[in-house]
Specification:
By secondary structure, the chain is of the alpha/beta class. It folds into two domains: 139 residues, Lyase, Ornithine Decarboxylase, Chain A, domain 1, CATH 2.40.37.30; 226 residues, Alanine racemase (TIM Barrel). The protein contains eleven helices and 21 strands. The strands form three sheets. Strands 2, 3, 4, 5, 6, 7, 8, 11 and 12 form a nine-stranded parallel beta sheet that branches. Strand 3, helix 5 and strand 4 form a beta-alpha-beta unit. Helix 1 packs across helix 2. The protein is elongated.
Length: 387
C-alpha cells in the first residue's frame, strides 16, 4: 500500500532496514520505525494544530505502544496520549508517559477502575451509566473529581464491528440526569469513532455522520441540561491535512496515530506533509510451486499488503506481488509471486496495527543525518527486548 511512496520519500529507511536484517541485528517479522521522520511528522502536525487551537493526543497502538517513540513525541509538545485499551494505558503509565485519555475505544474493566483512576488520567470515556457509577465510586474513595467524555451514537452512524457501544442521542434525556447525580464526575466532553474517513471517490477525507452526532449531542447537553462541554474529541485519520477540518466541525481534539507514520489512506494516494516512517521486514523462508514464502506474524486484516522488495541490498532488490494471508488462517507465512533466494530480506509497507500482531519493533535514529543507529528492539506491546 505504501511501498512505492516509501521508496520515493524515505528510501533511507528501506536501505537501512535491509542492512539491519542482513547483518542479523533484527529478526524477520520486525517493524522498523524511523524516529527522525516520525518526530518531524509530529512537529508539522503540532504547528498546524497550534494554529487551529486543536489539542493532539498521541495514539501509539499502531506502532506497538512503543514507549521510547512516544516519550520522544511528548518532548515535542503533544497534549498527552490516548490509550485505546487498559493494557496500553498500563504500558504508558509504567513508562512515565502522560496518560491523558482512557476508556475509548475500550472501557476500563470493573476491577481495574480504582487503579486506573489513581493513574490520574485527565479524561475517561464512558459508554454506560454503570461504568460511570464505578468511576464515581472510585473517585469518591480517593476524594477526587474526574472529567468524563460521553461516547455518543445515533441512527445512521458508522460503527465498526467489535466497536459498538455508547449513548444514543435519543436516550440522553434519561441518561444525563443519572450521571449528573454522581457528584465526583464532570461531563467535560463527547467523543465517537470514526469522525472522519478517506473517501476514494472524492479523493479527500470527509466528515462521517458521527461528526454530526457529536455536534447534536453538544447542543442537547447545552439546551436541555445547561452543560457547556469543553471538548469534542474527534478521532480517525488525524494528520496535518485534517486539522483544519476538525476545527470546522467543532472539534477540539485529534488523535494522530497513522498520521504520525505517514500512513493514513490518503497518504497512499497523495503526497501529504508527513512522510512514511515505518516498514515491515521479513525474510524468504522457502519456495514451492513457483512462489516464495516469507515469515509472517505482522499481518493485520485491513493492512492492504500489495507489494514487497526482496534482496540483500536496495539497489539490487526486486519488486514482487504479495499474496494477502487468508483472514481465517494464521499468518505463519506470507506468499510472494516469484521464486527468490532463501535468506533474502523482504521489505513491505502497509497499514499497520502492531499491537494486534506478534511482531518485534526496531527503532532507529540518525537516518536524516546519515548516522543511522538501532536504538532499541521492543515487542508488539511496548516492552523492550534488546538493542
Amino acid at each position: 500500500m505504501f511501498l512505492d511512496l516509501t521508496l520515493r520519500r524515505n528510501a533511507k529507511l528501506i536501505d537501512y532496514s535491509i542492512y539491519l536484517h542482513q547483518a542479523g541485528l533484527i529478526e524477520p517479522d520486525t517493524y522498523v520505525i524511523d524516529l527522525d521522520t516520525i518526530i518531524e511528522n509530529g512537529r508539522l502536525m503540532l504547528a498546524e494544530a497550534n494554529r487551529q487551537n486543536i489539542d493532539l493526543l498521541v495514539m501509539s497502538k499502531q506502532y506497538g505502544r512503543n514507549p521510547f517513540v512516544t516519550a520522544e513525541l511528548m518532548k515535542e509538545g503533544f497534549k498527552g496520549t490516548v490509550a485505546v485499551d487498559f493494557r496500553e494505558a498500563k504500558v504508558l503509565y509504567e513508562n512515565g508517559i502522560p496518560l491523558t485519555h482512557i476508556g475509548h475505544l475500550v472501557q476500563i474493566p470493573s476491577h481495574l477502575v480504582p487503579a486506573f483512576v489513581e493513574m490520574n488520567p485527565e479524561f475517561i470515556t464512558v459508554y454506560s451509566t454503570q461504568k460511570a457509577k464505578e468511576i464515581n465510586e472510585a473517585c469518591r474513595k480517593l476524594g477526587k473529581k474526574q472529567k468524563i467524555f460521553l461516547r455518543l451514537v445515533n441512527e445512521g452512524d458508522i460503527l465498526y464491528p467489535a466497536q459498538y457501544g455508547g449513548f444514543y442521542l435519543k436516550d440522553l434525556q434519561s441518561v444525563v440526569p443519572e450521571i449528573l447525580k454522581l457528584s465526583n464526575l464532570i461531563i467535560d466532553g463527547v467523543t465517537t469513532f470514526p469522525c472522519f474517513l478517506y473517501e476514494k471517490s472524492k479523493g479527500e477525507i470527509v466528515a462521517t455522520p458521527n461528526a454530526e452526532t457529536l455536534r447534536k449531542g453538544k447542543e442537547i447537553l447545552k439546551e436541555r441540561f445547561g452543560i457547556d462541554i469543553t471538548h469534542m474529541n474527534m478521532p480517525s485519520s488525524t494528520c496535518t491535512h485534517l486539522i483544519e477540518m476538525i476545527k470546522e466541525n467543532g472539534g477540539t481534539q485529534g488523535e494522530p496515530g497513522h498520521g504520525l507514520m505517514g500512513t493514513t489512506p490518503m497518504h497512499a494516494v497523495k503526497d501529504l506533509a508527513e512522510r512514511p516512517a515505518m516498514v515491515y521486514v521479513s525474510e524468504i523462508s522457502h519456495t514451492i510451486d513457483g512462489q516464495s514464502y516469507c515469515y509472517g506474524g505482522g499481518h493485520y486484516r485491513r493492512s492492504h499488503m500489495e507489494n514487497a522488495l526482496v534482496g540483500k541490498k536496495l539497489d539490487s532488490a526486486v519488486k514482487v506481488s504479495v499474496e494477502m494471508p487468508d483472514t481465517e488462517s494464521i499468518d505463519y507465512y506470507i506468499g510472494l509471486n516469484k521464486e527468490l533466494p532463501v535468506g533474502d530480506t523482504v521489505v513491505m509497507s502497509f497499514r499497520s496495527q502492531v499491537f494486534v500482531t506478534r511482531s518485534n519493533v526496531g527503532v532507529v535514529k540518525g537516518l536524516a543525518g546519515g548516522t543511522p543507529e538501532l536504538v532499541g528492539i521492543f515487542d508488539s506491546q511496548g516492552k523492550e527486548t534488546g538493542r
